[in-house]
Amino acid sequence: MFAGKLFAALPRGSLFATALVGTSGFAAVAFKKSVRTMSAEEAREVISPKEFRALKLVEILPVNHDTKRFRFSTGDDHTPLNMTVASCLVTKATIDGKDIIRPYTPASQEDVKGHFDLVIKVYKDGNMSRHVHSMKVGETLLFKGPFPKIEIKENMTKHIGMVAGGTGLTPMLQVIQHLLANKNDQTKMTLIFANRSEDDIILRKELDAMAVANPDRLKIFYMVDKAQSKDWKYGQGYINKETITSQFPPPGTDNMVFVCGPPPFMKAISGDKAEDKTQGELSGILKDLGYTKEQVFKF
């Protein structure tokens, strides 16, 4: 009941890729070019859902061995992106003569002025991720959006369980930051965050800091294939039914589960989206545990 229609502003027939960092399994396509005159209101926008606009890369910060934080200027130190949560931006680049399009969820809070950050993991077969990782400060990237995914309302539910795999973290991070910043909101959140190894856990310091500062509202449980440290206190192996039942409250009308990760991850946890990128049918572990389609949202 909470799941909003995805990417309603996109041209009909457009396909997609995934978020932070390419995890929702969308396909890359080119948008039809059009020439039109911007209104005065549109001209004041940093970016627009109606056309691509070039924004300058102003800083690159390492996150881990294959992930970096890319900071893009809005061109105005007094203007935020004014994104609703949860939303994504769409990037576009011409690579080997083809227009490649990928959506990314900013890792910075929606009300930050003057810039926004994308945290991007480079993939060997990821055209856009390799392109962005090759960029130098001062170069520009085309952006379009924002495009709403699901409307996050104050106290919309008692508990949100989040299941993220690797680069599927950023939509969850956007929601977490947004709700924790609202002192009137009492929603409790639990994030199960799966990665190959401890070294692959992106933004762990930031996540741990938020959990420590908000112990009554945010709980984080990490999963890795095999722990490296002897004092590892979280899970190992694949997420299974026991992982979810030990961390989340039982299915009910007063809680929801958000899921984001690569296609095999989505298939195991909730089932992937439909071919037209609507939510599709619920399957996988969450269905087996008794969750309904209305209680689960797939990013």
Detail the topology: elements first, then pairings.
Blueprint: H1 19-22, H2 40-44, E1 53-64, E2 67-73, E3 87-95, E4 98-104, E5 115-121, H3 127-134, E6 140-148, E7 159-165, H4 169-181, E8 188-195, H5 204-213, E9 218-224, E10 235-236, H6 241-247, E11 255-260, H7 263-269, H8 284-288, E12 296-298
Parallel strand pairs: 7-8, 7-11, 8-9, 9-10, 11-12
Antiparallel strand pairs: 1-2, 1-6, 2-5, 3-4, 3-6
Q: Biggest β-sheet: count, sense, barrel?
A: 6 strands, antiparallel
| H/E series | HHEEEEEHEEHEHEEHEHHE
* Low-confidence region ranges: 1-43
Q: Any idea what the shape is?
A: globular
Tally of DSSP helical segments: 8
Rg on CA atoms, Å: 19 Å
Distance between the termini: 15 Å
Q: What is the strand tally?
A: 12
Percent strand: 25-35%
Instruction: Classify the helix fraction into a percent range.
Output: 10-25%
Tell me the strand order in the biggest sheet.
4-3-6-1-2-5
Structural class: alpha/beta
Give average pLDDT, whole number. Answer: 87
List keywords for this structure.
8 helices; 6-stranded antiparallel β-sheet; 299 residues; alpha/beta; 12 strands; globular; disordered N terminus; 6-stranded parallel β-sheet
